[in-house]
Amino acid sequence: MATINIVSYSVDQSPYVIAEFEEVIRHSMLCYSMRHLALAGVTSEDSFDLMLKRSMEVCRYAGIRFDDHFRQIFVFDTETGAVHSDWLMSKKGFKLMLMQNPDLNERYAHYLWELADR
């Protein structure tokens, strides 16, 4: 008569696998970057810095983990040999950044109006 062995797998055996999986899911949600902000009309680096600072404050006051929606990355430019920083953002993070823009122009106003309608 054949016997079957049952192997029990528990979370306690590999908590790092679950943490790594959760990190991959969080990272996959970061689909926007500073390039998208530039397409929306944000061109000033000072404006971007202020928007990022205010977004951090909103997350802190709301009890939201900032790094779930914003992550700094470094990009190497092969043509110039320079490294510059960029920020990846989730959809909510991107919208939050747009709401914090101190500069207002016609193009940006239309974009905000569409955002408010979603």
Give structural notes.
The protein is of the alpha+beta class. It has helices at residues 15-28, 34-39, 45-62, 91-99, 106-117, and strands spanning 70-77, 82-89. The chain has a two-stranded antiparallel sheet. Strand 1 (70-77) and strand 2 (82-89) form a beta hairpin. The protein is elongated.
Descriptive labels:
alpha+beta; 5 helices; 2 strands
Write the SSE topology:
Layout (H helix, E strand, L loop, with lengths): L14 H14 L5 H6 L5 H18 L7 E8 L4 E8 L1 H9 L6 H12 L1
Antiparallel strand pairs: 1-2
- Average pLDDT confidence is 85
Poorly predicted residue ranges: none
Q: What portion of the residues fall into strands of 2 or more residues?
A: 5-15%
The whole-angstrom Rg is 21 Å
Describe the structure concisely for a colleague.
This protein is 50% helix and 14% strand. With 118 residues, the protein is an alpha+beta fold.
